[in-house]
Amino acid sequence: MAHGPMMILPSTLMYYSLIGLLAGLLSGLFGIGGGLVIVPALVSFAGFSQHRATGTSLAALLLPVGLGAVFEYHRRGEVDWRAALIIAVVLMGSSWMTARVASRVSDVHLKMAFGGFLSLVGFSFILSAYFKSR
């Protein structure tokens, strides 16, 4: 069997496929996938550095994350195309700028910042649900 940079072992293919499946399911359900699913899975289960996981997640999400889900939401009249276009343009510029900054941050500090961000988001959702249910 040939070995090289494009060689993918069956177990690796399975890990990547499971990560993609989970990200796709959660993307369609909650609108999440990259930062909340793919990045942690690549770091925890595939041994990627934080930087490599982020870059790989962005590359994987470039086209497919939206196509299937957006088609369904559009079909149901649940897409505001004007808002989506404005957000996309601003997102493109700001993500490029922050990627340049992140490339200068150590992997450890980037992982700590990412974990802190996820904790804050989770905590705010818990508080919001708690106070709305009262």
Outline the structure in words.
The structure is a single chain. The chain is an all-alpha fold. The protein has one domain (12-132). Helix content is 78%, strand content 0%. It contains 6 helices and no strands. The protein has helices spanning 10-30, 34-45, 50-61, 64-75, 81-102, 107-132. α1 (10-30) packs antiparallel against α2 and α2 packs across α3 (50-61). The chain starts with 9 loop residues before the first helix and ends with a helix. The relative contact order is 0.08. The mean pLDDT is 83.
Question: How does the major sheet shape up?
Answer: none
The structural class is mainly alpha
- Give the helix proportion (percent range): over 70%
Distance between the termini: 62 Å
The whole-number mean of residue pLDDT values reads: 83
Unreliable stretches covering 5 or more consecutive residues: none
Provide a count of the helices.
6
Report Rg.
17 Å
- Binned strand content: under 5%
Order of helices and strands: HHHHHH
Which of globular, elongated, flat, extended, rod-shaped describes the shape? globular
Q: Got a strand count?
A: 0
In quaternary terms, these chains amount to single chain
